[in-house]
Specification:
Length: 111
């Protein structure tokens, strides 16, 4: 089943009106900085976990609390880092990028 090319085009709109507005440079820079920190933290955690696993294979199987091993605790710590970094990423975008985008859209509306 095929659709005509204009099946998803709103009525009264042509191809030129469907492009998103240009993103200001400072908003791109802020988003790039936040993304860079997020990727760095998560990549460092993955590398650290892989390094510990390769270096201390037998030690990670050591029971720490009953049947809970050191490896399980490190895996739980890894999960906390992932969830915490995702929450930080969302909050950083909400506080820094959304405010800049709102200010830029307000400035454009006043013009």
């Amino acid at each position: 089943m095929s659709f005509p090319d204009d099946a998803f085009t709103p009525r009264g709109a042509d191809a030129t009106t469907l492009h998103p507005p240009a993103v200001p440079q400072r908003l791109r820079v802020t988003a790039r900085q936040i993304r860079g920190r997020f990727v760095t933290v998560n990549a460092a955690t993955v590398v650290a976990m892989a390094g510990l696993n390769l270096t201390f294979e037998e030690a990670l199987a050591t029971p720490v609390l009953g049947r809970v091993t050191l490896g399980a605790l490190l895996l739980a710590l890894y999960g906390v880092v992932l969830i915490g970094s995702a929450a930080w990423y969302d909050r950083a975008f909400a506080t820094r990028c959304d405010q800049q985008a709102d200010a830029d859209s307000g400035a454009q509306e006043q013009r």
